[in-house]
């Protein structure tokens, strides 16, 4: 008799049979995920605010449909989920990818900036999960893959808004991993380093280990197939961040304050679009 214990992936649908809902699909990593996923899944539903950009993507593929919605509007997300349920009956995987980034200037401190970033990156993800959960519960074994960041391992200069929002996402998703296990829904935390996107194109500082969005999408899809608890990349960059983040506080501060002395004013970007 084979006494091998079943892994989470053993009783889940293969990707080729899955209905997947992807947010933040109109640009950057989200757009790359559309191209990577469409050939590998049964149906892909893509969301963002920009309906025209979504439609241009969907028109390229027979199994891609759109649900334009703003993740910061809980009502819009619930309506999108209702439409998905009416058409497909369930979703098997949610990829909550949509997000934004604005950098803080402590000489011109702006609490509204921090509120905006948290509203999109954290509460937007919460709105998305709330809308998707009833559909995931109808799956054979649902999966939530949520976009956090490698910045959560090391508090970086000027990342007060972005880092705090992504740290909140990480904590939220780790709690969901525990609370959803008994429901048969798995949760993956996506933690990228620097990825070439319209968002990072606005950065005016060095971005070590930067990879292109298609490579990032391929890594994410592999992690989704494995239903990994964490999908982090690129390996060396995220390893270094985690190692620095594990240093005593006084040493960490020496590293990050040295970085801050060389920081330039930063532009803003938005991946939700």
From TrEMBL:
Pfam families, sorted? adh_short (PF00106)
The record's annotation in InterPro entries points to: NAD(P)-bd_dom_sf, Sc_DH/Rdtase_CS, SDR_fam
Q: In which domain of life is the source organism classified?
A: Bacteria
| Keyword annotations | Oxidoreductase
Q: Sorted alphabetically, which Gene3D superfamilies does this protein's record hold?
A: NAD(P)-binding Rossmann-like Domain
Q: Which family does it belong to?
A: Belongs to the short-chain dehydrogenases/reductases (SDR) family.
Q: PANTHER family, alphabetically? A: DEHYDROGENASE/REDUCTASE SDR FAMILY MEMBER 7B (PTHR44196), DEHYDROGENASE_REDUCTASE SDR FAMILY MEMBER 7B (PTHR44196:SF1)
Put simply, this protein is called SDR family NAD(P)-dependent oxidoreductase
